[in-house]
Write a structure and sequence with these properties.
The strands form four sheets. The protein has a seven-stranded mixed sheet with strand order 2-1-3-4-5-6-7. A six-stranded parallel sheet has the order 8-11-12-13-14-15. Strands 9-10 form a two-stranded antiparallel ribbon. The chain is built from 16 helices and 17 strands. It starts with a strand and ends with a helix. Helix 2 packs parallel to helix 3, helix 8 packs parallel to helix 9 and helix 9 runs parallel beside helix 10. The protein is globular and about 65 Å long. A hairpin with a 2-residue loop joins strand 6 and strand 7. By secondary structure, the protein is α/β, with parallel strands linked by helices.
């Protein structure tokens, strides 16, 4: 019998209490045929992950090892890279089992597929993009790599990138493998983020200037039936005890009719759980926020990304400062816990832009002050990715060396404005923000 080991590589700060359920790998696990002996390992929930990997290899001696590489780095200005996790795991596997087939995939791998195959020669095959339709073809005793779409593989000494295949119909997503990856292994200890993700859609048509989401999920939205979404949430709630979910959609409340149908389905079933997600400010209305409250929303995440008109235009956000302020007024009126994300020290900012940003931040703090519903304002610098419009503009304008290696964390943070993130965080601390951040406490208050 063929044997396979599925491994979620460590892509979180070791020792951090917050855990994230490996949604993608769990779905792939469910596609492995019953004729294949399967073992799984999520290194992120191991106290010491590397001995755990060594033990799994020793005990099972698999024929195939599939490595899921979810994140390149922790973002938030950190200079750490998770590439060492991929390199080390591949080395450990091949050193112990030289004849094993090593597969790699995941969002981080997909962004740099060819480069990572070059950097990590122990990888035999890479899966670029979605895996649900492709992975079962790879889990064969002797797969014909030349006929499998969306993979990069070694043909002798050459790397071959096959053309992409069809994207999956969201209503045909394979179920999560809850036996292999028990959700309750992830739900103890999280206070700031929901451990369990739910997919309502894939793809994005917004083309924000820093973002590669359209490259990963497609440049149009593929919607999943609200009934199927809530079916999965109900199953996880009743069978696995999940009480808090986070929608993994790039934007949850677009298109509005799909979002409102989802809320109505949640209301109709009257289930006892809460959820969070990222909302687009200019698509939020009083009516659909009211629907979301009745449907169990416990926190709204906004990603306005810029505090100035200059920044909104630069990042191609296709909305205004007034859209951001209006959305904050709505969540303040409704008392919904709100998290706001902004990028600071943007390209081309002048002192007048900085003054405008300070004023905008103060307006937002004032809006939420009386309601006491602002859980956090998260500030970051732009993480530069190859091919992103902002990255290309910086290269064209001579502000970024085109030879800069963007596989590793590179942020746009010129010295002149490098203090702004800390200044803005201090303004939020002095306004009492960050004291209401814990989602578990807020969920209990809502339930009372």
């Amino acid at each position: 019998m063929m044997k396979i080991l599925l491994v979620q590589l460590p892509t979180s700060h070791l020792g951090a209490g917050e855990k994230v359920y490996p949604l993608g790998l769990s779905r792939l696990s469910g596609t492995v045929p019953d004729s294949v002996e399967k073992k799984v390992l999520d290194m992120n929930i191991c106290v010491d992950p590397w001995p755990a990997l060594n033990e799994a290899l020793t005990q099972q001696r698999p024929d195939v090892v599939a490595l899921s590489f979810r994140n390149l780095d922790p973002l938030a200005g950190h200079q750490a890279s998770y590439l060492s996790s991929l390199k080390t795991a591949a080395l450990v596997v091949k050193n112990q089992l030289p004849d094993v087939r090593v597969l790699a995939g995941g969002p981080a791998f997909s962004l740099f597929a060819r480069r990572l195959m070059e950097e990590v020669p122990q990888l035999d095959v890479g899966l670029k993009g979605e895996g649900e339709l492709i992975f079962p073809l790879l889990v064969q005793p002797d797969p014909d790599y030349g006929s499998i779409p969306g993979i990069i593989w070694r043909d002798g000494g050459e790397l071959v990138l096959n053309p992409p295949g069809a994207r999956i119909d969201m209503d045909t997503l394979p179920p999560m493998d809850l036996g292999a990856f028990p959700p309750l292994d992830y739900t103890h200890g999280n206070a700031y983020v929901a451990a369990m993700g739910i997919e309502g859609k894939r793809g994005c048509d917004l083309w924000c200037g820093y973002c590669l989401y359209p490259f990963l999920g497609g440049n149009r939205m593929r919607l999943r039936s609200p009934v199927k979404i809530v079916d999965e949430m109900e199953l996880l709630h009743k069978d696995a005890g999940i009480k808090l979910f986070h929608f993994t959609d790039g934007v949850l409340n677009r298109p509005a009719d799909h979002f409102e149908a989802l809320c109505r389905e949640l209301i109709r079933r009257n289930l006892d759980f809460s959820w969070t997600g990222f909302f687009r400010e200019d698509s939020l209305t009083r009516d659909n926020l009211d629907l979301a409250k009745k449907a169990g929303v416990v926190a709204v995440y906004f990603s306005g990304d810029a505090l100035t008109d200059h920044g909104l235009e630069l990042l191609n956000k296709k909305m205004t400062r007034e859209d951001i302020l209006k959305a904050s007024r709505l969540t303040a009126e409704q008392g919904v816990l709100t998290m706001c994300h902004f990028l600071v020290n943007l390209p081309g900012e002048t002192e007048n832009h900085v003054k405008e940003a300070r004023q905008m931040l103060d307006e937002l703090l004032a809006i939420h002050h009386a309601a006491g519903n602002l859980g956090a304002v998260i500030f970051n610098h732009i993480r530069l990715y190859p091919g992103a419009p902002v990255t290309q503009k910086l290269i064209r304008d001579g502000h970024l060396d085109p030879e800069t290696d963007l596989l590793y964390p590179v942020y746009h943070n010129p010295a002149r404005g490098s203090h702004l993130l800390h200044e803005f965080e201090a303004r939020c601390h002095s306004a009492g923000v960050f004291s209401r951040l814990k989602l578990d406490q807020h969920a209990m208050e809502v339930a009372k």
